[in-house]
């Protein structure tokens, strides 16, 4: 789950989804994702490296607690998986994927679409950002948090994060980094594919700026979370969705 995070209120992040593998025990939660149209979820390609029969996987929308679904929750199945054709597992380049759902989702107070920014938004100037997910509470804990967790983070300069004492060149131009230089707040295992959102500087709405990709350990100093920039893949997303 989110390190040093707090439990999210129902409807706080109405685009977040839980992507679930029915072969796993418990809820089957494997990755997060974001609803960007009634029938499409944006997530990370690395979530599906070992995936079998992805059409059996569930996508849970409108949920806060995975084991106690309210009437606002909706369940869909995956119709198709479109992982980026140039995704590479060893370097985590192009770590982005789309899931087409078997049926469109109905929007409500608890289910809303996330906004992906086009080239006109200056993402680096956004000040108030959040991460959310159901992933594990620490690097060692493999279990999933039952209640959706959230944490406030800062976007970090990619050049700084690529410097020798940080990630030493492992960050690509299509990545964003977020957290705090001293660590303490971060996404962990199980939050893969989930949203990094930032509030618009002049408006109350949020932009889906990143998809959780990877990080070294959890919430360690100079090891912030690494995200795939949605803005960088804006055209790819449009083309895939047809």
What report would you give on this structure?
The chain is mainly beta. The chain folds into 2 domains: 98 residues, Thrombin, subunit H (Beta Barrel), CATH 2.40.10; 118 residues, Trypsin-like serine proteases (Thrombin, subunit H). It is 5% helix and 31% strand. It is built from 2 helices and 13 strands; from the N terminus they run βββββββββαββββα. The strands form 2 sheets. It has a 6-stranded antiparallel beta barrel. Strands 2-3-4-7-6-5 form a 6-stranded antiparallel beta barrel. A hairpin with an 8-residue loop joins β2 and β3.
Helix content: under 10%
Rg from alpha-carbon coordinates: 16 Å
Which class of the largest domain in CATH terms?
A: Mainly Beta
| Strand order in space, largest sheet | 8-9-10-13-12-11
How far is the first residue's CA from the last residue's CA? Answer: 33 Å
How would you name the CATH homologous superfamily of the largest domain? Trypsin-like serine proteases
Task: Enter the CATH topology name of the largest domain.
Answer: Thrombin, subunit H
Count of discrete domains: 2
What count of helical segments does DSSP give? Answer: 2
String of helices and strands: EEEEEEEEEHEEEEH
> How would a textbook summarize the main sheet?
6 strands, antiparallel, barrel
Low-confidence stretches: 137-141
Q: DSSP strand (E) fraction? A: 25-35%
The residue-averaged pLDDT reads 90
GO molecular function, one term: serine-type endopeptidase activity
EC number: 3.4.21.10
Keywords: Disulfide bond, Hydrolase, Protease, Serine protease
Domain Peptidase S1: 2-242
